[in-house]
């Protein structure tokens, strides 16, 4: 009896267990059916939320080119390494190797991660090369990712750096043309949908939501060959004359285009570690100086326009000095009685002052204003200075006199080059441009044609054995120009031993095509006159530029030939 009861109890337990297993299996089956059929959309959305991502795609910045299509600034693809600190903290053992790969200080990395533990995105190293990025990903460290970006590269280095400028780490323009034309050059980032694995790596691109649009290319007016030539010669002159700084600007007379604009000291935008803010500015556009005797051709133009003077009009400069109030204006020598041409040739301060004082202050101010002094050239370059030209109502006699030989007003090298381009273009003024001009440029007549031509003829004598700028001569071409040696300002007046040396000129003088201004600041060598320091730079740069642009010579020597005598004649 007892044995039978045990069998019945065993059968009941087995049935209960079987029913329990059946119930469990049925529950599991129901769960599978529920998840796969009734709750399918919810689960798919949850899965997608964890692995589907919308990511930005970087856009390529536009290329900056010179007038002939040679690249001056291009963008190259690079990778940036970023991390999720809360994920990476679980793999601290990989940090030393990761820091070593990226050339980072381990302690600094640890401090950065600790300080940003509440963030999901922290840059570890921007702009690494693709090989390094690949090695980082091969670590398969959780929370370490890479992102495609673009880095700006400048093929000409420091040769054109002041004009081109540079971008920051986010590829946004900071200086120069990169800043001025930011909206034109920058691209529009795109978006795409991707699938990422648990480590956050993209394993599949699903679709483009918005395709990245690259920035537009930009053609500058610069000629890379002339830019390099001017850079090389200016740098050599600064070193030779132990000068503090210098600038050179060349314009195309026919279009107002800037063919070259260089400064010293310069900087290499490809080497961010050695860049200093004091080197960034384009001195040719932003820095002002008193132009000194390079303003005298415009004083003569003013005299001719007034019709009170002709080129042959005699000015008595004896005894080489002129008393104006309590001040005395002096020449280097007593030039005696000289005509207007000699005022330029000999660079007579007394002669220029006498001419200016015979005119009204308003006449002078109107002339300088028409030439562009006291206002920007319209180049659109960031930070361009307008210089300084005070209103004639505030002038005293001494100021009127000193303005005639370039003291009391301030100009930039670019402004001075623009003013000389007006003389070169028969009195026509064109806007200055750093962009290539493919259409004819409208000009405004601001000087009588005859006056501009007469002044050019006078300026040719400066570049002769009788003038102060012989070293500015160019073989095969006529050159017209003017030297300037300016005393620098100091506490209480002007320094006796610190100068700015300048030469401004144009060529070929018979039909001008190019204008060039060279300014050397604070030469500390044995020579400091504009005709000694700046004129040789003008000669070498202008000579090379005329030949590079295939400008026909206008001063070739005449070769005498004789016909053979007829036979039988004695």
Please explain how this structure is put together.
- With 570 residues, this protein is an alpha+beta fold.
- Helices cover 35% and strands 22% of the residues.
- The protein is built from 20 helices and 21 strands.
- Strands 2, 3, 4, 5 and 10 form a 5-stranded mixed β-sheet that branches. A 5-stranded antiparallel β-sheet has the order 12-11-21-20-19, sandwiched between helices. The chain has a 3-stranded antiparallel β-sheet with strand order 1-8-9.
- Strand 19 and strand 20 form a beta hairpin.
- The chain is elongated.
- Residues 566-570 have low confidence and may be disordered.
Class of the largest domain, according to the CATH hierarchy? Alpha Beta
| Topology, number of strands | 21
State the fourth-level CATH superfamily of the largest domain.
DD-peptidase/beta-lactamase superfamily
Q: Quick check: average pLDDT?
A: 88
């Amino acid at each position: 009896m007892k044995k039978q009861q045990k069998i019945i109890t065993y059968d009941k337990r087995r049935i209960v267990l079987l029913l329990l297993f059946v119930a469990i299996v049925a529950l599991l089956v129901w769960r599978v059916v529920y998840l796969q059929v009734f709750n399918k959309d919810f689960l798919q959305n949850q899965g997608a939320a964890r692995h589907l991502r919308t990511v930005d795609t970087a856009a390529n910045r536009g290329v900056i080119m010179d007038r002939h299509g040679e690249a001056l600034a291009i963008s190259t693809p690079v990778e940036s390494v970023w991390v999720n600190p809360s994920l990476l903290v679980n793999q601290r053992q990989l940090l030393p190797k990761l820091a070593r790969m990226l050339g980072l200080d381990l302690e600094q990395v640890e401090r950065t991660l600790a300080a940003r533990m509440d963030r999901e995105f922290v840059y570890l190293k921007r702009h690494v090369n693709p090989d390094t990025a690949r090695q980082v990903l091969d670590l398969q460290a959780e929370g370490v990712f890479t992102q495609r970006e673009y880095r700006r590269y400048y093929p000409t280095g420091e040769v054109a750096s002041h004009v081109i400028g540079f971008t920051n780490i986010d590829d946004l323009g900071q200086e120069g043309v990169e800043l001025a034309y930011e909206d034109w050059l920058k691209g529009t980032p795109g978006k795409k949908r991707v699938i990422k694995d648990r480590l956050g790596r993209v394993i599949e691109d699903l679709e483009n939501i918005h395709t990245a649009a690259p920035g537009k290319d930009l053609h500058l007016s610069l000629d890379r060959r002339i830019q390099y030539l001017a850079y090389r010669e200016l740098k050599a002159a600064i070193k030779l004359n132990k000068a503090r700084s210098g600038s050179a600007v060349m314009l195309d007379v026919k279009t107002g285009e800037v063919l070259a604009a260089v400064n010293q000291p310069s900087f290499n935008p490809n080497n961010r570690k050695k860049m200093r803010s004091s080197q960034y500015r384009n001195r040719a556009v932003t820095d002002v100086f008193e132009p000194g005797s390079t303003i005298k051709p415009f004083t003569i133009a003013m005299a001719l326009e007034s019709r009170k003077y002709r080129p042959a009009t005699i000015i008595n400069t004896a005894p080489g000095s002129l008393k104006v109030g309590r001040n005395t204006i002096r020449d280097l020598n007593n030039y005696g009685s000289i005509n207007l041409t000699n005022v330029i040739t000999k660079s007579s301060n007394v002669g220029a002052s006498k001419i200016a004082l015979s005119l009204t202050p308003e006449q002078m101010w109107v002339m300088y204003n028409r030439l562009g002094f006291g206002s920007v050239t319209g180049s659109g370059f960031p930070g361009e200075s307008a210089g300084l030209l005070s209103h004639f109502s505030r002038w005293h006699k001494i100021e009127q006199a000193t303005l005639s030989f370039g003291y009391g007003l301030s100009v930039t090298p670019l402004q001075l080059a623009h003013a000389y381009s007006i003389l070169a273009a028969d009195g026509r003024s064109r806007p200055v441009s750093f962009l290539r001009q493919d259409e004819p440029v409208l000009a405004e007549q601001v000087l009588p044609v005859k006056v501009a031509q007469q002044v050019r003829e006078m300026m040719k004598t400066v570049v002769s054995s009788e003038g102060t700028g012989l070293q500015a001569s160019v073989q095969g071409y006529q050159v017209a120009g003017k030297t300037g040696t300016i005393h620098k300002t100091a506490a209480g007046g002007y320094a006796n031993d610190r100068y700015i040396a300048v030469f401004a000129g144009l060529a070929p003088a018979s039909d001008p095509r190019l204008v060039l201004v060279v300014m050397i600041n604070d030469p500390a060598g044995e020579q400091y006159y504009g005709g000694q320091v700046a004129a040789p730079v003008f000669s070498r740069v202008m000579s090379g530029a005329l030949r590079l642009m295939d400008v026909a010579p206008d001063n070739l020597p005449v070769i005498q030939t004789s016909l053979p005598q007829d036979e039988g004649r004695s």
